[in-house]
Amino acid sequence: MNDSTTKKDEKLISKYINDLIKTFNTAISAEEDPPESPEWLIENIAEVVNKVVPPPKGPLIFFDTSNDSLMKNTKLLVSYYFDLNRLIESNRLTTLDFRSEFRPIADLEKILGDDPKSPFFKEIYDGLRCLQRST
Length: 135
Description:
Oligomer: single chain
Number of helices: 6
Largest sheet: none
Shape: extended
Radius of gyration: 20 Å
């Protein structure tokens, strides 16, 4: 990673660090009974857990070092004139796509409901999209 990329990453992380500390630095007394979960929450969690989310398809790139894969990746890079941005852009909706490892944001929103922290998590999720566009 070059210095410019590192500085961009530091700037992005510093934007959220105080919110992360506030969000996850909440003490819960062991002597208190946990509150009853509302019925809507149990139903929404069950719906999200049981929802079939197909995994993204595989990318054009091969992630091993066999001679065959190296040759295919070389031909692929040549076909994109060694422009990795174009190559990655052509792999939308694959496992190479940014945020492909996450479930759809609507699933998280369904579970969080009207929780005051919901906009914070959505902002982080959207921030990943912005980070992807800025690199």
